[in-house]
What does this fold into?
Amino acid sequence: MIQNLYTSANGVEVDILRLDTIDSLAPGNKWFKLVPNLVAAQHANATRLISFGGAYSNHLHALAALGHVKGFETIGCVRADRGDPLTPTLLDAKSWGMTLHYLSRSDYRRRNEREFITEILAQYPNSYLIPEGGANKIGAGGCGKIVDLIPNRGSDYTALVLACGTGTTLAGIASMIADGVRVIGVPVLKAEKFMARDISAMLAVLGADRDNWQLDHRFHGGAYACLPQAVLEHMQTFECYHGILLDPVYTAKASYAVQSMVDNQEFPAGSRILLVHTGGLQGRRGFNL
Ligand SMILES: Cc1ncc(COP(=O)(O)O)c(C=O)c1O
It folds into this structure.
């Protein structure tokens, strides 16, 4: 699961944790967020799973797959117009039986409002609701189990680096990682105003008030799913050199961040860095790569 990538001229060793290789239709961080949510849904005797995402959402894709395997009906509230052509992601989701519930951009913005959620749930009785990105306590707690895959709970490493969308995965990892290890999140969207606050709140919910983490906002490239030329070139070189595919939305930005920090000698000589590959490869189909 952990592979060595390279050692820099000044002696910084970079490894990668391959969550993308989890043998499931829901690989990456999705496995850790969703499996415990499905167990909770079973305990609640729910028959339907409902969540939110975009037309290329890794989260909806994984939810549809796992729901299908575990015998749940799934409802994907998608930020898209009914007339839009189906993306490969939504085609897969439909093939696994997901009902697509289309939401306009303005409705989608209401996805966390209690009244709006109540209206949607009324249309799908007996549902278990999972927030966008699997960003609930159970999802974050599940991501804490990623640390079980790292020898000595990560204590051989100076820092872990991972991409952040909601920050849920980071919160889970930061809650469980060994003392003394930094967890560096690379937001893939402009999130200066809210992500750190959301992560602190999630850590508080997990009962893990830790300050072992930080966000590095330099690498979002302007917007979610925006792929700057430099990141694209890094991704292509990385894939050729290491034979490991990245996804353009999340892991390419995290890997680019690690490479930039190493090149700028931001890690002291002798540091050991673990890049977390959080999956998302199905989302490559949204790009002309
Ligand atoms: C492949 C991939 N990596 C990273 C993330 C970011 O995870 P989080 O929202 O927990 O920060 C996501 C989104 O869930 C993702 O799909």
